[in-house]
Amino acid sequence: MAVTAALGVVVVTGISRYLGAHVAARLAADDRVGRVVGLDPNEPTAEIQRLLGGVEQVRADAASVPTVVAELDAEVVVHLSLVTSPEPGGRAAMKEHNVIGTMQLLAACQQASHLRKLVMRSSTAAYGASFRDPAVFTEDTEPRQVPRGGFARDILDVEGYLRGFRRRRPEVSATVLRFAPFIGSTADTTLTRYFAQPLVPTVLGRDPRLQFLHVDDALEALHRSVVEDHPGTYNVAGAGVLALSQAIRRAGRLAVPVFEPGLSAAATLAGGLRLGRYGLDQLDLFVHGRVVDTTRLVEEYGFEPRTTAAAFDDFIRRHADRSLVTADQLATAERAILDGIRRVRATAAKESS
């Protein structure tokens, strides 16, 4: 483990969001960091604002980031402002923010003469999720096919641009952290909302293996990436896996099996069950699952995130009082679902004969 010398100006993007705000606040409280400046085009909520007492805030959109980074004479840039799912502006706005915004930031970093380090949030979604996947992905594994989801494709583009930056500025220590899906008592994501509902849709005949990362361990990995030197690309996830069926039972929820085309028709399903809206990234994960190897992270950082099961249990503790399904109700509902499946099969067999 190589410890970075005292840092001057650290710029953190995306401080109006949970991850960016907490990383900026942790760095501002670290004596090894001289000055923390947060960039975001949006005004943080009152709750987020309370975290940012020691952080200088600059309202800056993607177009003005190059000027701001140059004027600040930044030594470290921490890029956390990626959007993981379409917002009101739709898919086009999401790609503009993720891909074009990152291009503009990297262009600014390329011209920043005092830049020593770049840390970027990425995702294990970069590997995609398909029936062709290996049992475990390492950092050197290439996706077997182009992911269907917009966020995963954005990640591939963003990491491609970063590889170009590394070639142009080899003296800058560049760290990429591919995070598994976040979970935990404080996480609020599409995934946590999926498991927090009493009825959880699953694909009939599929039981994917899932891996999670406690959001506090993501913060720790990001913090260490700034104050220590860890150039390279790292998978960041909790050890071990949970099958989707195990996770649903652990949370005390009711699985609602549907055929895969039904799950893909997310708008209809979400409207009927009030489960929220899921993109193709999440849907493919619920069908195929994804597991990554974290050996490189553990050996390089000397840090091991809590296990997938422990991270999920922390999430359950917060949502335990929201479970609307008792064990007896769960068993009764499962029997009813299985009876329904048998009737569908019997009807189909009768019609074919």
Automatic annotation (TrEMBL):
Boundaries of every NAD-dependent epimerase/dehydratase domain copy: 10-237
Coiled coil spans: none
InterPro entries named in the record: Epimerase_deHydtase, Lipid_A_modif_metabolic_enz, NAD(P)-bd_dom_sf
Signal peptide: none
Domain of life: Bacteria
Pfam family, one: Epimerase
Family matches, as SUPFAM superfamilies: NAD(P)-binding Rossmann-fold domains
Protein name, per record: NAD-dependent epimerase/dehydratase domain-containing protein
Organism of provenance: Phytohabitans suffuscus
Phylogenetic classification of the source organism: Bacteria, Bacillati, Actinomycetota, Actinomycetes, Micromonosporales
